[in-house]
Each structure stands twice: as C-alpha cells, then as structure tokens.
Design a protein that fits this description.
With about 150 residues, the chain is of the alpha+beta class. The chain contains 6 helices and 5 strands. It has a 5-stranded antiparallel sheet, with helices on both faces. Helix 5 packs antiparallel against helix 6. It is globular. The N and C termini lie close together (about 10 Å).
Length: about 150
C-alpha cells in the first residue's frame, strides 16, 4: 500500500451523496471539502504502520469487527476501482466503540517490533492525533471518510 492516508469529517447529507460516487468523484469531493475548511487529519504514509502496531497485521488485511483495525481503515468500504484509491467511512454512531477501544491502548506496548525509535514515536504521535480527531468528530456528530491515494 504505502500511499497517503487522510481522514475527513462529513455530515449526513455529504455522506449520502458520496455513497453514490465513483473513485474520481470521491477524491474530487474530499479535496473540495478540505479546501472549503472541512476538518481533516492527514496521517501521510503512517496509516499502514499504525494498523500493524495496533493489530499485528497489515492494513491490506483489515479485521472486520475489530475497532482498532477499523480506527485506521474505516468500517464501510466504498466500492470503487482499485486504481481510484481506497475509500471507507466510519459512521458517527460507530465512533464511540472505536474511541473506547483506542483509549484502552497502552502506547508503551504497541507492537512496533523492530521499528526505529523515531518511527515508533511518529506512530505513537499519529495514534494520539487520530484519537483526538475521532473525539472531535463524535462531539460534532460527524461521520469520517478515510481515503488512501
């Protein structure tokens, strides 16, 4: 995978419209939302390392029903062509379980294996940033779209 990951908060109407879009339209819509001031979180290329640290497996093998896996890659995957990227959403009512699971994580015991200390610190920082983003999304009653392009 190794592509750039990004999370964007969206309201119900926007999510419903996006569910009908193809990959190119989804990417254009997300870019317009960000340019228009929608709250977002860029995880860059560290989403794969974060998924591995939280679950012990690659993000290319998401674990359905695992809130820590879903925290990184989303819950509901959009059906788009692989070359258009990856898009998934986490609905507002699913954020509480994900936040609760993330709050139980002991950052000192993340499965970072033989990662360099600097990279381990970056993964920890991304985890903290993503948790904060999810808390803000839940407080605002927003859904979250995760994209990789």
């Amino acid at each position: 995978m190794g592509m750039l990951g990004q999370y964007v908060m969206v309201d119900e109407d926007t999510l419903e419209r996006m569910m009908e879009m193809d990959g190119a339209e989804l990417m254009d819509t997300l870019e317009k939302l960000i340019e228009g001031g929608s709250e977002h979180y860029d995880i860059d290329k560290l989403w794969e390392e974060l998924h591995l640290a939280l679950t012990g497996v690659s993000a290319s093998e998401p674990i359905e029903g695992d809130p820590l896996s879903e925290a990184v890659v989303g819950v509901h995957v959009f059906e788009v062509e692989e070359e258009d990227g990856f898009f998934a959403c986490t609905e507002q009512d699913e954020l509480e379980d994900i936040i609760a699971a993330m709050q139980q994580v002991d950052l000192d015991t993340l499965e970072t294996g033989d990662l360099e200390e600097a990279l381990r610190q970056q993964v920890t920082s991304e985890f903290t940033g993503l948790l904060d983003f999810y808390r803000r999304a839940a407080a605002a009653g927003k859904h979250v779209i995760f994209s990789v392009a």
